[in-house]
Write the structure tokens for this entry.
Amino acid sequence: MAEAHQAVAFQFTITPEGIDLHLSYQALSQIYLSGLRSWKKRISRIKNRIIKGVYPASPSSWLFVVIAILATMYMQSDPSMGLIAKIREHLPLRPLTIVTVQNCKINRNSIDIIYLFYLFTYSVVSWKICVSDWWEEYVYLRSRSPIMVNSNYYGMDFLYVTPTSTQAARAGNTITALFLYRRKVNREELNPSRIPGTVIPLCAAQCERMFNTTRTPGEETDVLQHWQDSEFVAVYHRGRYFRLWVYRAGRLLSPREIQYQIQRILDDPSPPSPGEDKLGALTAGNRTPWAQMRKQFFSSGVNKRSLDCIEKAAFFVTLDDQEEGMMGENPSVNLDRYAKSLLHGKCYDRWFDKSFSVVVYKNGKNGLNAEHSWADAPIVAHLWEVSFTLATDAFHLGYTADGNCKGEIEHFLPPPQRLSWDIPLQVQMQVSESLAVAQALADDVDCHVFPFREFGKGRIKKMKLSPDSFVQLALQLAYYRDRGTFCLTYEASMTRLFREGRTETVRSSSNESCAFVLALEAGEDREHCHKLLRKAAEKHQNLYRLAMTGSGIDRHLFCLYVVSKYLGVESPFLKEVLSEPWRLSTSQTPVQQMELFDLVNHPEFISLGGGFGPVADDGYGVSYIIMGEEMINFHVSCKHSCTETVRAKQPNLTTQS
């Protein structure tokens, strides 16, 4: 909002008497409040840098150390109790020989120190230099095919509960919760995610581009653009785009005020301008045509101003006219439709380039669609699911008895701003072409969502098995029963133990897993199958540990391939290995720290998790979330065009072990 007022904050005219200066005090106030918010964020980050600098100790413990050192210096005592003198006696200190160009002499101790420092530095930053940047560039941003279905993924609402059936109210609480999360990100107040059962933190660098971020199309490669702040969201409803300010006079609007503003959009009867209603299809189709249209028709004038409002928004919101969720006479089919709606919608009513788009349905159900290049699913899951947004919406913000948001409404709120467009015929033709490409892709995708309630991690852990390993082995068994063979299997493992780490591949199909599946299918005795199951699970756990600690093989092979391309060296081995299809692509959505509510006492507030499209045309995409002790939710996707993976051949995930 401050940017909009800067142009009119200072105005002057030249008169015969001199310069007549006019000040807009309202505009100056907005600029002041915007600057104040910025400084609050900076001060908060400085404080957090101090706390992080002494982690895992506390500032008070370091104060004790400083006092102890000063006391020792004042008393002129030896805190080592003679140990330092003994060391000096047996290991006299000698200056290290300095490396010079003239004599090129290097002390052996220096070499050891330099080598160890190199190893340490490499272990800390290698995932940034050798993997993360290249992974983002070559795997995501250089892809010219549609990111809808192929790259973007989705997250769902609660399975059994919809906190309110009022669309505007659900949007009001959801938007408020997301901005509260952004405030925590900006002030670095989020509790760090940790390896379960330890105090070892995971890198949170991916959170930095969660908000105010968009993927900008390019003819050869896309670019991620991130802005430091944004005080508004972009909203789509019935073919119209709006800018909705969520800050006024430096304060975040109350949920009730945001609901009021959303309702004004829902009640707006104005029709879309020519070419506006399906404009979002440009983000759903192939990337190069979108880049060309953007450069030619959206780089100046009214189109640029409106596109900037979308791209610089904190995030994108779609007010959908459909009703979704597990409802009606056939809840299973409706869940599948719900998944497809979040994955691709109508192919034009989402802005797939935004870091994430929130979808709020007519019956109050919600969900989101996330772009993949800026972060991986666990980051978005922590934002969205029971870790924050959904829990904040239902348990901390809450609703009145009649389903409205809580809070007061300030009178004279300016209405949401309708975005204006001048869409020429050439752009409208490209919109139609992009929509045709996206619609064909969307129609080909089949999604199936099902909550598995027979047993959960409670029973699995009683068998002293890893729940993730157990599910992965069940998927191996299901695929074998479905196709009569084994396939290359991809499971995503996080590498956030390293700075700016992303993912590594766990190759879940191993000799041990195949031996277990074959023995079970051959009807071998129960004891032998249990032994093979345990051996396969231990193998999988070891593979996961190796991947998580940087000892996997796939990202290293990927980096070697990139280097070979830079050097112009052809490697038949790398070319063959990296071109093998992942016919079974899997990912677990982690249930992270849940400080906001107790799932045991509120079992009805179970999250459905999320899913993604198939990686291979003749394969499956499988996402799962292990909820509580008694449920595992699965999201399975494939393509109708493959006769081997159509709905009639759904795999059986139930094991007899």
In short: Residues 1-12, 93-128, 653-657 have pLDDT under 50 and may be disordered. The two ends are 61 Å apart (CA to CA). The CA atoms of residues 138 and 162 lie 40 Å apart. Residues 108-141 form the longest helix (34 residues).
